[in-house]
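Record passed on here:
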Amino acid sequence: MRAVTRTFLVNPPTESVKLSARQVYNGLVAKARDERGFVPLVEDCELLEETETGLLRRTTYKVDENSPGGVAKRPPSLEKVEFYPPTSVDYVIVAPDGGPPLARGYNIVSTGEQGELLITFMLAFGRNGPEDTGPEAEEKAQNLFEALGRGMTTTLKLMRQLAQDGKL
């Protein structure tokens, strides 16, 4: 198991479109329903079931030839998503045939000490247990850290567009 976490300032001074905490949370729910557009590596995202407290989806990822070492094409995964309004959208990712979780993801909307709006993404990958160490684990963690940065940039950009269009 290895975890990678990144926190981003939602409304940096350079952004003209400012998002509220509710808009960011609503954007995370929209992303959970269909990740395409939010995450460039998502090839397909099929909503299988939705309830008031979450959803189940099947997600297929593209090969990422731009990241060091690339991300291999893998079978679709089932992702159970739980909503914790107004601050968190959490994921448990399993193989399509079941089994133990392959990864867990947490998306948390919070406020910093100065009142600034923050969003934190944490991805824990691999089976639960001792921390994976060594050069291969370090490289994978660094690749995921960079991918979280690219994904967050795209996610916030799309959230701003949805907010401008009155869809959040």
User: Anything to note?
Assistant: The chain has a mean pLDDT of 87.
